[in-house]
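Q: What structure does this chain adopt?
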Amino acid sequence: MRADPDGDNRDVRYRTAAGTVVGAVVLAVLGALMGPQWSPVPLTDPLTVQTSATAITGAVEAGPYPVRASVLTVALDGADVDAQLLMPVGVEGDVPAVVFVHGAGTGKFTDAFLDQARSLAEHGVATLVPDKRLDTYTLRHRDYVEMAGDYLRSVDRLRRVDGVDPARVGVYAESEGAWIAPVMAADEPGIAFVVLASAPVVPPRQQAAFAVDSYLRNTGVPQQVFRAIPRAVGMSLPGGGLDYADFDVAPYQRRMTQPVLVVYGTADASMPVVQGAEQIIRDLAIAGNTQYTVRYYRGADHGIRVDEIVAPAFLDDLSGWVLGLPATGAAYPRIAGDQPSQLYWAGPVPQPRWLGDGDVLLVLVAGAVGLLVLLPAGRLAVVGVQHLRGREPGPGRDRTLTRRLALLSGASVATVVALVWYLVEVARLAVGYERNGWIVQGGWIAVRVLGLVAVYAAAAVVVRLRRLRRAGEPMAHGVLGHVVLWGTCAASAALLVVLAYWGVYQLGI
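A:
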C-alpha cells in the first residue's frame, strides 16, 4: 500500500500549526513568570494650588543693574574647574548670591543656566556657575555626596568674593542637581537658601521608571510594551556600576533647615511633579522646617521653559523670592501656579527575577546570535576545505530540515534586531514627545509577527526531526552536522526565551 502524500502533508501542516500555538502559549506563560509585571499605582492625593498667580508675597523688585562677568578658578579635591561669576554693578552694600548645581550631562558655564544667572544678576543677586566636574562623573559611577562636597567648594569661593554677603549665599539646583543640593544644605547649615527646580526627589531608579512610563503613555505604545519598564530599569548595567540608581535623598532633605523654593513646569512629563513637592514638604516638616514655597508654571517643561524660552514669570519670581528672604521663605501663597497633574505614583521598581543581570543577558543574546551566524559559515568553510583537498563530501543533509533550520535561525535573529530597532525608535519618539502610529503600533505588530514566524519555524523543525526519527533516518551526519543542528536549536531557543522575557509573546497574562 502506498503512502498518501496529501495525507502526510496535511498531517505535517496540522502538527506544525498545533506546535506553533503550543509554543506561543508556552513562551507567553514563561515570559510572564520570568520577570515582574508593571502595575503603577494611581496617585489619588492631588496637590491643590491656592491660587493660579505665581507672584510671591513680599518679593522684592530691584534693578535692572549692569552686570560684570568674570571667570574664577575653583580648586576641588584633585581637580580645578572654571566658574563664571556675574556681579551686579551699582548695588549698595553686599549682595546675596547663588551657586548653580548642574543637572545630568556635561554642564559648562558657557551654556548652562544662562537666563537664570543673568536675570538674577540684573536684579541684584551675584551668581556663580561652575563647570561640572567630569573626571569623577560617568554613566556607571556618580557619587552625589562626593559631588556635593565639590559644589560646596564653589560656595566657599563665592563667599570670599568682594561685594558678596557671605551669610546670604544659597544654592540653585536643577534636575539631577536636586539630589546633590540637599546633601550640601544638610552638611552645611550655613547655606542661606535652596532652590530646587524640576527635582526628581525619589531615587534615580524610581524616577527613571516613572519618566519612561510617562513618555510611553504620551507616545501611545501598546499596553504590552510597558512590561519592559521594570525589566529594563531594574536590570544591572553590563559591566557593573549604577550603584547610585538607588540613592535616596530623603534623609538629607529631612535635615534641611533653610528656606526652600520648589519649582516645576506642568508640562514636564519626566518628573513626579505632585509627589515631589509633597515629599519635600513632608521631609522639611521632619526637620521642623516650615519655610517652603512651591510654584508650578503653565506649559513649562523640564527646564522651566515655554516654547524653548525660560518662563519670564519664573525669572521674576526667582529673583523676588531670593531678595525678599527671610520674609518670602514662608509667605502666602505657599503653593501656587498652574494646577499640576500626576497620574501614577513614582514607586519602587520591581526587580527582575531571572534576566536582571545585564552581563548575563548580553552574553546570552550575543552568544546566541554569534552561534547562529557562525555555525552555517563554519560548516561551509569545512566543506570547502574538504573539496579543495579532494575529499569526497559526506552524506548529504536533509534539505527540508536544512531549510527549516535556516528559517528558524533567520527569524530568531531578525526578531531580536526588530525588537531593538523598535525600542530605540520608540525611545526617540518618547523623548521628543512625538507620536507615529506606523512605528508605535505597526512596528510592534511587525515584531510580534516575526516572533511568531520564529515559533512556527521551531515547530516545523521539531516536526521534521520526529519524522526523521520515526523513519529511522539520521537527523544529522557526523560530528559537524550534529553541532550545527543542536547548536542552531539551542541558540534559537535562547533567543526565543529572551524575546518572551521582553514581552513579544504576551497573551494578556
